[in-house]
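Why do we care about 3D structure at all? Because function follows from shape, and shape follows, mostly, from sequence. That is the central idea of this module. The next example makes it concrete: a single protein chain, its amino acid sequence, and then its structure expressed as tokens.
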Amino acid sequence: MRDFSDLTEREVLALAIANEEEDARIYADIADGLREAYPATANVFSQMMNEEGEHRRRLLDLYREKFGEHIPLIRRQDVRGFIHHKPVWQYRPLRIDAVRQLAEAMELETQRFYRRAAARSTDASIRKLLGDLAEAEVAHEKTAERLVEENVPEKVRQEEAGAERRQFVLRVVQPGLVGLMDGSVSTLAPVFASAFATGRPWDAFLVGMAASVGAGISMGFAEALSDNGSLTGRGQPIIRGLITGLMTTIGGIGHTIPFLIPDFQIALAVAIAVVVVELGVISWIRWRYMDTPPISATIQVAFGGALVFACGVLIGSG
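And the structure:
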């Protein structure tokens, strides 16, 4: 990598052209990624792409005038000081707030680049163009705000916010909730059955750990293999599987850890308290994200948990 101060004016212009080309491609990728779910916001990024294309044209005209037709390939990653931006495809599924923050960071970085380049340029025409482009990048924020106002009115913003929330619930909350419920409820029976059968906390701990990890692996694979997300819109299967498997394991380990306490009665009391907290968290998540009435959510979860707990106690006591 080279320092920015070592670049010639020809190389600075070549880098500026490459930057504008890359920024335009990034905005095009963002627009394409948002087109289906957020068409209004996608239109904003399409227009920002067009503006980057105009900047590139102005830079190309000046470069040809000064240095001819051949443009050396100089990119951000060849020069120290630039931020390395992840490719847009690695952000997918795209979130509106994430891509807007990315766009703001890109505009600020480009603005600083043009100001530094203009300050060290000795050619009047190059200095003027770079200064003008720096001001244009400053104006981009206002332009973006104007485009948002024109293309994304308040009603559309609310619709897009609702769509984004539904995507989050579908791709993150739902698989996580499934795992947490399975881990917290299904492992109650083996953990407490072993506790009452043996009266030894360590035995209950081993059974709980085995049940939790096994359930996590099983649920993770089951979720990942259920569908690839192409038709249901539930996102990448590997991500869903990891979320479900991790939350399943956490749900089971929560009421297993108390059995590390040597005293059986204390360990049992703490484990029961943890179970109550777990069921309360599940009820809150169902109320907060799944639109289930709080009383109904609490009764449903508590009833299911009580049944499984009772089965464990009866089997262990028998």
